[in-house]
Amino acid sequence: MSTALTFRELPYARESLATVLSTTGAIGENSVVVTDATLFYPHGGGQPGDRGVFITADGRTLAVNDTRKGENGQVCHLLDPGHGLEVGQSVTQQIDWPRRHAHMRMHTALHLLSVVVPHGVTGGSIGADRGRLDFDLGDASFDKDELTERLNALIAADYPVTSEWISEAELDARPELVKTMSVTPPRGAGEIRMVRIGDVDYQPCGGTHVASTAEIGPIQVASIKNRGARNRRFTLTWAETPGGGQ
């Protein structure tokens, strides 16, 4: 039985009930717990897995250290061994909301970065304090202060951020929608999830996002660094947080 992705339909939900499906297996030093539904986003697409807690009916609080994708559509919650959870038991899931919300804001900001830097994306990662995209720029060059100004203008425009589904055939007919050069959207289910930002961006994405660009808040391009002959790494941080990036 696969795990229902509650976080996808309710990205702002912070707490929800779920039922334990299995407690077997381990990843590293963590025990794997699978539930029938989850608020926890599993690591993927450059976005970290959610953390938080499971609260049992008798009041025990169990830390969820990370969340990963499992087999057959299941989501693996990584808990400390000895959690005592049993199949069929109900738990209240609570995500670390400040961390998740920061990921949502940064993820949406990186989509906007791909608008103002219209080149192929060769890599990226999302964090609560910073995020980055790597681009195949060739001979092109950009000024970080000018990019910061353009990004904040897009953010202030308060574009709505929505998602929809299209068929794999529709995506095949519009290959320009895929901005990543080395990673393609997951296939096999027949449909691809698309994220739309007003009339400025439309691309495949399975991550969580804020509802409007204004919710991102002020951002800055902290650094642009060489990563090979053609690749450049653009790092974003919150405008109120000084610092550069890797």
Structural descriptors:
246 residues; alpha+beta; Elongation Factor Tu (Ef-tu), domain 3; Threonyl-tRNA Synthetase, Chain A, domain 2; 2 domains; 6-stranded antiparallel β-barrel; 4-stranded antiparallel β-sheet; 17% helix; disordered C terminus
List unreliable stretches of 5+ residues. Answer: 241-246
Mean pLDDT: 93
CATH topology of the largest domain: Threonyl-tRNA Synthetase, Chain A, domain 2
Shape call: globular
Question: Would you identify the CATH architecture of the largest domain?
Answer: 2-Layer Sandwich
Distance between the termini: 40 Å
How would you write the strand order of the largest sheet?
2-4-8-7-6-9
Q: Describe the largest sheet.
A: 6 strands, antiparallel, barrel
User: What is the helical fraction, as a range of percent?
Assistant: 10-25%
The fourth-level CATH homologous superfamily of the largest domain is Threonyl-trna Synthetase, Chain A, domain 2
Q: At the first level of CATH, what is the class of the largest domain?
A: Alpha Beta
Structural class by secondary-structure content: alpha+beta
Number of strands: 16
Strand residue percentage: 35-45%
- Overall structural domain count: 2
Total helix count?
4
Radius of gyration over C-alpha positions, nearest whole angstrom: 19 Å
The succession of helices and strands, N to C, reads EHEEEEEEEEHEEHEHEEEE
- Oligomeric state, counting identical vs distinct chains: single chain
